[in-house]
Amino acid sequence: MPCSALFSLRRRLLLPAATALALVTGGLAAAPAGAAEVQVAVAANFAVPLARIAEGFTAATGHTLKVSAGATGKFYSQIVAGAPFELLLAADDETPKKLVAENHAVAGTAFTYAVGQLVLWSAQPGLVDGQGAVLVSGRFAHLAIANPKTAPYGAAAMEVLKARGLAQVLAPRLVTAESIAQAFQFVSTGNAELGFVALSQVVQPGRPVAGSYWRVPAELHGEIRQHAVLLKAGEKNPAALALLAYLKGPAARAVIQTYGYGA
Amino acid sequence: MTAADWTTVRLTAELAALTTVLLLLAGTPVAWWLARTRSVVKPVVAALVAMPLVLPPTVLGFYLLLLMGPQGPVGQLTQALGLGRLPFTFAGLVVASVLYSMPFVVQPLQQAFEAIPERTLEAAATLRASPWDRFFSIALPLARPGLVTASVLGFAHTVGEFGVVLMMGGNIPGQTRVLSVAVYGHVEALEFDDAHRLAAGMVAFAMLVLVTLYVVNRPARREAGRPR
User: Which domains does chain A possess?
Assistant: First the structure.
């Protein structure tokens, strides 16, 4: 796997730099100006893990986070329109690339903080089988997906339906949610029997899994490489730099893995 | 305008028209009762009717989603009746819109009914007009400006509905994707040309509706307010 080897090499190189950066910013935090605040836009699938990471980050650095969760594509249009976000944790790698190319994000800061896992989930135990055959069973009225135009997980879900040849057949049953968070909510309240969501939403550490789910194999859709990128507004904010570094550190990586993300 | 645009426009018009008709049928008796009653529960009923004016649409959407969901009492009722569930359906949007636009229909009607002097109705009663006759021959014609205002505002406010639909519509073309949600979707996806087509049409529509309302209601109001 040359890709993961490259990645771990990158991590090895980045880690000392990150530690140095954390020390620098830690020094800044202790300065009279005090701890800084960083305004983060996070893809909805990563909102819960980020809240957990933020606890450790604040304890370690004193910096605090102001978090907005939503669909990555929406953040893109908001950032282009001048939204004051300083750090973007996207649900794909395309959006950060575009932001860098269009000079809204700082070149060379984007990196994969998580590899997403798409699941087909139902709040009903036993409805979803291990192969996703329930999709052709007709035993559901509504299938919730995140808006494929703005949410990478929604786009991945559409790819799965197309790969299975079901996009046309199931179109009348598709319920399009604002973001993966609303897709999760539709399924969780039982209003939609099925939904494509992120594994991180279904499998919460220390809690039993509600309902039934199918881990969608990555062959059925493009890999969901979730990139973080420093935005222009955060270029000089020590808290933004510190959080970027912290996300690459072992504490954050451990949290990310407990939520079922690949790395 | 694309075919998808027309589907959205037609769906929105159908939703608004059906909602307005249902609200006129259900809201007129409520407005009449509110205008004439001296009951102690009047403030409570009036408050219930006015609630959607005050509540954020998200509150309404949230509770409707729970109430109409499979575990909710309304959801269990509709399922027991074999009607299925309401969220993500056109029928569900109609129910939500009726609640959401209720004050915009009931309040103008109530004001129009309140403006009718008691003595006019009493005079009709002494001429042996039955209560039904008095209502249909006197009250309703005199309340015409209120009826026009109620219909126009009920229709227009349903067209302008957004938050509730976003929360319980599911954005299904031809089912629940109404104009406001379609515009939002286009803007979010940076499809500004598509958004403009619908949004500019909406601006023109709103202007047209309001100008028509003011033109239609002007002479009628003078007539109703003329001293006898």
Answer: 2-115+223-258 (3.40.190.10), 118-215 (3.40.190.10)
